[in-house]
Specification:
Length: about 270
């Protein structure tokens, strides 16, 4: 079956520069509404990947996201939000971007074309067969990602990927390929739009469901979140008030003493 880059096909809209701002916004919104439906169709693949990740992480495994450009930035973003949201160390979900941290703000010439660098970066981080490598690329053709995934599979490491094109070279290197077909972008080939939105949704789904399975959420609350600002201290205090029936002052003192909602509640209950 021939590989067709749906994400690179011409926009369904023409003469964008002649449209009013309202028309542009409504057209983009129309396209964005297709993203959630495309992600919904990929849920069986997302579920399969999560179910393979959880037991690995329970044994000390990690998730590595790998991408270039927008895809790489979204992987780094999702990884960076795990410690404050779930109170996990920053070493458990790691985002790697072609070109390194410089590429978060500036394009790094030819970085994504290096087929060896991705695996070298994984080796530098002592990757093992308990870990999971998830490639992120709208096109499904990024050499930096594909090279790393090939080597990972050779070493018996679980691989997944998120792409906007079915039957891509990247998907061929994934044990569990997640293919969300969002269709052509509003600005032809601008994969930071629908493809990026879909990637963000799927990354949220993967890490949130994994963290819930690992016991980092209680009820529906972020009981392990880091208390890194006053807003979060207030939120945690109100969780303790609701859970234990204490007054606000006592709840806040308990929270600050123990450092997380879960530890505070457990200590109060004598666990």
């Amino acid at each position: 079956m021939a590989f067709i880059k749906i994400s690179e096909q011409p926009s369904l809209y023409n003469d964008l520069e002649k449209k009013s701002v309202r028309e542009i916004l409504e057209d983009i919104n129309t396209e964005d509404q297709k993203v959630a439906l495309a992600v919904q169709k990929a849920i069986p693949q997302i579920e399969k990947l999560v179910n393979l990740i959880v037991p690995r992480m329970k044994q000390g495994g990690r998730i590595f996201y790998m991408g270039a450009g927008t895809s790489g930035r979204l992987g780094v973003l999702d990884a960076s939000e795990i410690p404050p949201t779930f109170g996990m160390p920053p070493t458990l979900v790691i985002g790697l971007i072609a070109g390194g941290d410089t590429a978060l703000r500036n394009p790094v010439e030819n970085a994504e074309d290096d087929t060896r660098r991705g695996w070298e970066e994984l080796i530098e981080r002592n990757i093992t067969d308990k870990d999971t490598v998830i490639g992120i690329a709208a096109s499904g053709t990024t050499p930096y990602v594909i090279g790393a995934m090939q080597k990972a599979r050779e070493h018996g490491i679980l691989t997944g990927c998120i792409t906007s094109n079915p039957d891509s070279p990247m998907a061929a290197e994934a044990d569990v390929p997640i293919e969300m077909v969002v269709g052509p972008e509003y600005v032809t080939g601008s994969s930071r739009m629908k493809s990026g939105t879909g990637q963000k949704m799927i990354l949220n789904m993967i890490t949130t469901s994994v963290m819930i399975q690992l016991g980092r959420v209680k009820g529906n609350k972020m009981v392990n979140m880091q208390l890194s600002n006053q807003k979060l201290v207030d939120r945690g205090t109100r969780m303790i008030v609701e859970e234990l029936g204490l007054d606000y002052g006592k709840a806040k003192a308990l929270l600050l003493m123990h450092g997380s909602v879960k530890k505070a509640v457990d200590a109060y209950r004598g666990k």
